[in-house]
């Protein structure tokens, strides 16, 4: 379809006949991302009617989610399943003009600041101590403790700007930085809280008779400024929650599982804020994992 025809169809989205609009919206939706600039122009027009604005915004959200659904499907079938790539894609749902370059620059600055403090002679515990110092003391990242579900807490760019965010996003950033420094620290989809595992890639714990059944050297709690703790404390916490000590609570989750948790959190946040449209869309994306 030519750009001229797309413009003509966008101009007709305020047609009062609902049946006509359904046909027009279906055609525009099939045009995908090509229609987005035209719909954004409608939102910027001072003369746009309330119906035009409502329908333009509705179509924009639908087309973006259609595109994201395809991208997330590709991501799920890809061999590497890059964690950062998926988070950025999901952030574009509520921030279409997301500045990706800012995210990469902020993460690289953080990674470099940690790298300057690391050396090959440090133990795994010493390396985490350095990471914690730069992450929580120098850059002053802090987990929010508010029970109020605000989208900003889960917005990667906003968290990198303000240094405040949900334990989940703070923990994911921590893991991404660690992996960028070849430190095997990965997230665990743990109930109630989000924790990280520092893997024992050299089996060094066996020499101290502390070898883990899960290949983990120790655990990290990003909510408490990177507090290091042991497997026994996970058992104690699970007992408090009246949960059986399933293996999945002790070893790293896959990136697919982490993104699934991230999506579930976004859906719950939308539900809390009575944003039914985004709630349905996030639920739709979650169905890709089943």
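Q: What amino acid sequence fits the structure above?
A:
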């Amino acid at each position: 379809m030519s750009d001229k025809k797309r413009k003509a169809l966008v101009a007709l989205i305020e047609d009062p006949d609902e049946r006509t609009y359904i046909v027009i919206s279906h055609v525009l939706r099939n045009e995908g991302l090509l229609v987005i600039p035209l719909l954004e122009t409608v939102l910027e027009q001072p003369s746009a009617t309330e119906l035009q604005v409502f329908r333009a915004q509705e179509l924009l959200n639908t087309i973006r989610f259609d595109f994201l659904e395809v991208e997330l499907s590709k991501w799920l079938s890809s061999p590497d399943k890059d964690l950062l790539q998926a988070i950025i894609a999901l952030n574009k749902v509520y921030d279409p003009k997301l500045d990706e370059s800012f995210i990469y620059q902020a993460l690289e600055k953080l990674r470099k600041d940690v790298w300057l403090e690391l050396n090959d002679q440090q133990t795994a515990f010493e390396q985490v101590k350095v990471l914690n110092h730069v992450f929580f003391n120098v850059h002053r990242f802090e987990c929010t403790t508010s029970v109020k579900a605000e989208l900003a807490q889960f917005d990667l760019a906003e968290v990198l700007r303000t240094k405040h965010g949900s334990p989940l996003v703070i923990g994911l950033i921590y893991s991404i930085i660690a992996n960028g420094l070849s430190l095997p620290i990965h997230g665990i989809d743990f109930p109630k809280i989000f924790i990280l595992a520092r893997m024992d890639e050299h089996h060094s714990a066996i020499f101290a008779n502390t070898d883990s059944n899960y290949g983990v050297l120790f655990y990290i709690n990003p909510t408490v400024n990177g507090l290091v703790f042991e497997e026994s404390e996970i058992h104690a916490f699970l007992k408090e929650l009246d949960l059986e000590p399933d293996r999945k609570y002790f070893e790293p989750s896959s990136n697919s599982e982490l993104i699934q948790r991230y999506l579930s959190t976004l859906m719950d946040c939308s539900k809390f804020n009575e944003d039914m449209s985004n709630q349905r869309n996030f639920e739709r994306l979650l169905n890709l994992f089943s």
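Q: And what stands out in the fold?
A: Strands lie at 142-143, 164-165, 185-188, 195-199, 216-221, 227-229.
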